[in-house]
Amino acid sequence: MKIILLGNGGHSKVIQEITSALDHEIIGILDSKYSDEFKHNGILYGPFASLNQLLNQEARVIIAIGDNKIRNRLADALEVRPEQYISLVHPTATVSTKARIGRGTVVMPNAVLNAGAWVGEHCIINTGAIVEHDNAVANFVHISPNATLTGNVSIAEGANVGASATIIPGKTIGMWSVIGAGSTVIANIPAYCKAVGSPARIIKKAASVQVLEKTGGDAFDKFKNIPLPATYDRE
Ligand SMILES: CC(=O)SCCNC(=O)CCNC(=O)[C@H](O)C(C)(C)COP(=O)(O)OP(=O)(O)OC[C@H]1O[C@@H](n2cnc3c(N)ncnc32)[C@H](O)[C@@H]1OP(=O)(O)O
């Protein structure tokens, strides 16, 4: 399969290795840092504007950028049809036949996705991360290296779970929230919050969450609408 990578930073390096391990052929690496096109080892390097000519070659695309917001913005901005995105799973990752992985998602070496785990589109399940049974991981999420989502955990869109963090069973991380490296989450975390430590405490909340709390509203209930990922079979 011919693959085009969008982004050429550290995260892209790892994806390039996964792509090679899967015997795909990288035909283009595009990045905003390039203003002109050039070829090196048969790969076209250039700006994102070069995407259309490469897509004419029946290639598939992966957004190889670690920042969840930038992946989200790029996916919105690009005229790439959903079926043109590929999901990549490193050969050493263990993925249950009863797990689902959305388009544009990458599963790094030694990660584990157990039975009933649903992972959405354009997610990163990073090196050695564990996504246990019956997890729901929405689009544009990053589960960092060695993080553990125990059973029945829900991670809403765009959330970022730091390296080696642990989420205990049944808890929810709200949309676009960030969990610090090494933290242990033992309660639901509302949307747009930053939580750190063991047990994790919220150190930063979105203004809207603060207003709800001041007015007696239930912040979590208001923000917990978790967009479940669409079900796409593994490639
Ligand atoms: C392959 C890869 O690299 S994948 C990338 C993986 N990346 C990660 O895992 C990074 C995760 N990021 C973190 O843990 C960061 O520290 C964040 C995002 C949680 C916080 O970052 P910032 O908003 O810049 O917070 P800042 O550094 O100002 O710290 C604020 C407070 O939280 C504390 N804090 C920050 N991170 C943590 C943490 N992980 N655990 C415990 N406490 C923490 C700080 O000590 C500080 O406490 P203080 O106010 O008492 O001094």
UniProtKB/TrEMBL annotation:
<dbReference type="InterPro" id="IPR001451">
    <property type="entry name" value="Hexapep"/>
</dbReference>
<dbReference type="InterPro" id="IPR011004">
    <property type="entry name" value="Trimer_LpxA-like_sf"/>
</dbReference>
<protein>
    <submittedName>
        <fullName>Acetyltransferase</fullName>
    </submittedName>
</protein>
<dbReference type="InterPro" id="IPR020019">
    <property type="entry name" value="AcTrfase_PglD-like"/>
</dbReference>
<dbReference type="InterPro" id="IPR041561">
    <property type="entry name" value="PglD_N"/>
</dbReference>
<feature type="domain" description="PglD N-terminal">
    <location>
        <begin position="2"/>
        <end position="77"/>
    </location>
</feature>
<dbReference type="InterPro" id="IPR050179">
    <property type="entry name" value="Trans_hexapeptide_repeat"/>
</dbReference>
<dbReference type="Pfam" id="PF17836">
    <property type="entry name" value="PglD_N"/>
</dbReference>
<dbReference type="Pfam" id="PF00132">
    <property type="entry name" value="Hexapep"/>
</dbReference>
